[in-house]
Amino acid sequence: MRPSHLTLAVLVAAVWGVNFTVIEIGLDHFPPLLFSALRFLAAALPAVFLVGRPKVAWKWIVAVGLVLGVAKFGLLFVGMDAGMPAGLSSLVLQIQAVFTAVIAALVLGERPTRVRLLGMLVALAGIAVAAVDEGASGPLGAFALVVAAAACWGASNVLTRTAAPTDSLNFMVWVSTVPVLPLLALSLLVEGPSRDLAALRALDWQGAGTVVYVAWITTVFGFGAWGFLLRHHPASTVAPFSLLVPVFGMSSAALFLDEPVSPLRWCAAALLVGGVALTSLTPRRPARRAGPAGPTASGAPAPPAPPAAAAPGPAAAVRTRRPAGRAS
Prior knowledge:
By secondary structure, this protein is an all-alpha fold. It has helices spanning about 5-25, 30-45, 60-80, 85-90, 95-105, 115-135, 140-165, 170-175, 180-190, 195-200, 205-230, 235-240, 245-255, 265-280, 315.
């Protein structure tokens, strides 16, 4: 990989890692479901008019939009709003690689190797250690919501693999059109129109910046750059860089949000990242039945589209941490 491509791969991982800190900031400006809806609305417009027509069947766009956009990001945003720390969220979400491998084995007939099975066990041990650490300092319910978000992400990875989009940016932009109305409807039902209107009326530059970051920087730039790298290099060369996401996620949360990183959490990080590496980067056995090939290997972490906010600046650095138990 040439130096410019290497730099781009690290930059994308940094963008996706910092994304969790931006989400945390954005949740101080918006209710979680409304924030998620605005993220997808901004990602879809005006990009949907620039990327051309969809290049896969609408059934796959709708399916991924509902599972990834509504379920995965809805659960993630609500979990973080309920008290799940940004850095820990960036780490725990990586368990999606295990869910991806399990769902691919059940649905696509992909039999994991012994090394991959070992990786799953190591990653699950990391999740157990992280749960013990979070149980001692934060709400386990919020932790469970983020694990559920990772499961939905794994399901969306398998759907994406089956859809086999040839253009990841085109696919993500069209997928972003699907969750907007369902998330807005859920926000009105769960969070209430008065809370939504109050958030929109109080919109300031920092709140708007968080939406811009999570939509345009994380999604449009992040997925576009990741797709560019996958077109020029094997997936096995590009995928390992996604393991840097929790490194940047935990570091940025500690730097800008003053989130403590306990020795137990570092232990969880080592187990989880090591297990995900074994699960994602080892060759898988041939499937018992042929499944459509896609740009994302079933075991490799798909690019986190994730949720975020304005690029952290001085205001973020001095931001006061909200109470861990804040209701969503």
